[in-house]
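Hi team,

Filling in the usual template for the complex we talked about on Friday. All components are listed, including any nucleic acid strands or ligand strings, so the model treats them as one assembly.

SUBMITTER: L.P.
PURPOSE: interface mapping
COMPONENTS: two
RESIDUES: 624
SEQUENCES:
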Amino acid sequence: MGAGETPETDHSGVRVWLVPTPVGNLGDITLRAIEVLRGADAVACEDTRRSGALLAHLGIARPLVRLDAHTMSRAPQVLSRYPRLAYVSDAGSPGVSDPGSELVAAALSLGGRVEALPGATAFVPALVLSGLDSARFTFEGFLPRSGRERKERLDAVATRTETSLLYESPHRLHATLQDLIATCGPERRASVSRELSKRFEETRRGPLSELADYFAGTVRGEVVVVVAGRPLGGLLPGQSAPDYPQMAEGWTRQGHDVREVRTLLQGAGLRKNDAYGLALSAAANVTSSVAASVAPSVGTEAPTDQAGNTSD
Amino acid sequence: MGAGETPETDHSGVRVWLVPTPVGNLGDITLRAIEVLRGADAVACEDTRRSGALLAHLGIARPLVRLDAHTMSRAPQVLSRYPRLAYVSDAGSPGVSDPGSELVAAALSLGGRVEALPGATAFVPALVLSGLDSARFTFEGFLPRSGRERKERLDAVATRTETSLLYESPHRLHATLQDLIATCGPERRASVSRELSKRFEETRRGPLSELADYFAGTVRGEVVVVVAGRPLGGLLPGQSAPDYPQMAEGWTRQGHDVREVRTLLQGAGLRKNDAYGLALSAAANVTSSVAASVAPSVGTEAPTDQAGNTSD
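RESULT (copied from the run log):
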């Protein structure tokens, strides 16, 4: 165990450790995180007051340097003064939904070596506690607060078949649950976790409509919303399934042959084999309805389909 | 800090703690994980030999019970014997890509209380070290080894605009990189991380083709592959963009009015406003080309479009 075991392959002497910190319970920090924080030249952080309290709790006295989204351009100077730099975000693993990734790029561009220590995140416990499918999932972070990009992200959550994970602030939770109901429908399964790892940790599971009722008032603590994927073949609110058979028959009547109808159906979203089957049955249906409608007047004349084949 | 702070709201006395364990470096375990393992009635695990070695390293002597995917049906009996049960997987956070989620369901159905401790995963450090967009990402876990479902998952990786994370075993890495090249194209940015948090940890970044060359031989250690999302508007190998203008003109020539063409274009994947604009311009183009082609022979007669409007 320990940072001393890792090989020194960098040429600049610059080393950056991204160090995960607790998301709530101060015990959720690893032995190696403590060791790295203690051994670094300095600890860079988003908020010196917040990270200073953590270091004090751990009994670690190292210089603290602010390096957040607004000051990240100072990374090269900080690294030249403190070439063995630990980086912590406000909570959880630096580099996911926070400015750590820019520091990684700065250190690598200087020829330095970067390590990301495994450790706490808020979304993994929330996913596991949701009871929803955890085999595949998409992390969305915080949604944009308004506008077209928010709508697009909500549509993506509604449409994908994987479980989705969202961060939300407590005073915006109810509005976001309402928006999710509008895009995913009230019956979509979901869960809301708040104050994870803290004394009053709570995870509530159920359909979105129930969660919106339950969390109608103000809640405390940062929130993770987990939304089940769209059931296969399930329709979204206001969505009606394309009437592929009707489309196929329409194109067949207009004179497209089976191959062309298949291509048009693929363009409209069907798989190749499904499109081919539907194109074939449309050709058969159109031919037989032509046969039925022309039979009384034409008598014994055999109707032909668009490709010139005689039916029956 | 500590498990003692959490409220006892269950009625059965059953409590389950999902405890993350190191993915490589034995120092990557949290203070609270050690405390919970030490205080539990027993530790359930996938592999008693592996988890026994971890407990021995930590100086913890608790009963070990095997509870893996094949024996998970025994969860109720195990919980009745050891109502305060810690659960660890072979490595990382239980419940993501392993059987922990079934134990959660069993404990909740008994009216018990479940806590998921924040801690180590392999995919978060791999994502951060990849240098790729970490604002949104999809975790795919291990791909199916063959067949239609593997193809569908590879297509999903190629198509989505979010970063994708895959686990892979070392002897299958090269084949999976080749499959990714086939679906995403050789230029797609990616990274491969192996032996994360261990002595010979390595992260290699570059286009898929370079990574496939570099990892052509056998590698050691479990692997995380991170694949950049599809560039917006980018085409996949063998894919040509639907020729929407041509489709629109085709339908217009067949006699569909602007509203019908718009609906057909939406069915083929266009947004409503884009579809409307294209339907309008198709109507205009078809009308003017009709005008051009009929002009020599028809002389002064004004051509009309499908809706019966006179052009010009």
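MY TAKE: The mean pLDDT of chain A is 85. The longest strand of chain A covers residues 137-142.

Thanks, L.
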